[in-house]
Amino acid sequence: MTSFQTPGQAPNAERLRSAIITLLSQRQPGKSICPSEAARSLAGPDEKNWRLLMKPIRQVAVEMATAGQIQILRKGKRVADPDSFRGVYRLALPDACKPANR
After folding, report:
1. Domain total of the chain
2. What is the spatial order of strands in the sheet that 32-33 belongs to?
3. Residue 14 backbone dihedrals phi, psi, to 5 degrees
4. More exposed terminus of the chain, fewer Cβ within 10 Å: N or C?
């Protein structure tokens, strides 16, 4: 458990946003993160704990992408509609990827 998490409580949306931005800012330009990295940074290495954060992280990522703060990538390309993508994805800072998948 990290300083981000209180026992028995999931991190709030602001903590999830902060974890995503912190990890992305530590990457070289053009590089992305897996959303599970943000989950692990908050919940620790135990898969039972960090997996519980995957849906909330996805929701926050969609909000951030819609606001232009980050981009959601599939197969290295920005998704055209953050609200309707499916499958495995990565997160990147804006302008860190190829044109949108349609």
Report:
1. 1
2. 32-33, 90-92, 71-74, 77-79, 98-101
3. -65, -40
4. C
Residue 79 lies in domain: 13-101
Please report whether residue 8 resides in a domain: no
pLDDT (tens place) for every residue of the chain, 102 residues total: 344 444 556 689 999 999 999 999 999 989 999 999 999 999 999 999 999 999 999 999 999 999 999 999 999 999 999 999 999 999 999 975 555 555
pTM of the model: 0.84
CA-wise closest residue to 61 among 74, 48, 51, 70: 70
Q: Residue 21 corresponds to which tokens in the numbers above?
A: 């931005």
- Measured CA to CA, the distance from residue 85 to residue 81 in angstroms comes to 7
CA distance 101 to 77: 6
Dihedrals phi, psi of 4, to nearest 5 degrees:
-75, -25
* Encoded tokens for 37: 């990295």
We report the CATH number of the domain holding residue 78 as 1.10.10.10
